[in-house]
Amino acid sequence: MSVSEKEIVGWFDEVRKSKKENKLVELVRSKKLPADAVTKEGHTALMHAADCDFSLKCIKELIKLGSDVNHQDAIGMTVLDNAYTIGNPETFAYLLSVGAKCDLKKASG
């Protein structure tokens, strides 16, 4: 099933505004939003969850549902980078524990 950029961005915006992280998880669980769906910038549901500083429970569930912890967006950023930037050490540590790599080469080199 193919999901349009407009649908993905719409869902991401709705979830960010409402702060309903369960809505994001449910979209992925129901497969309306595939775990590997990306925006034109390369953002995934997992990256969006980290960027919104959603709970570790949400992050864990998205990973369990198939989100790639090492996916890089269009400029080479990962969910680990997002967790670091937001300043969430709990999410950062968990991502490392499930295989997130901190040495991936960025698009800029």
Summarize the structure.
With 109 residues, the protein is mainly α.
- Quickly name the level 1 CATH class: Mainly Alpha
Structural class by SSE content: mainly alpha
CATH fold-level name: Serine Threonine Protein Phosphatase 5, Tetratricopeptide repeat
Low-confidence region ranges: none
How much of the sequence is in beta strands?
A: under 5%
Query: What is the residue-mean pLDDT, rounded to a whole number?
Result: 93
In the CATH hierarchy, the architecture is Alpha Horseshoe
User: Percentage of helical residues?
Assistant: 40-55%
Total beta strands: 0
Overall radius of gyration: 13 Å
Q: How would you describe this protein?
A:
The structure is a single chain. The chain is an all-alpha fold and 109 residues long. The protein has a single domain, classed as Alpha Horseshoe (Serine Threonine Protein Phosphatase 5, Tetratricopeptide repeat). The chain has six helices and no strands. Helix 3 runs antiparallel to helix 4 (56-64), helix 3 (45-51) runs parallel beside helix 5 and helix 5 (79-86) packs antiparallel against helix 6 (89-97). The longest helix is centred in the first third of the chain and has 14 residues, at 5-18. The model has no long low-confidence stretch (mean pLDDT 93).
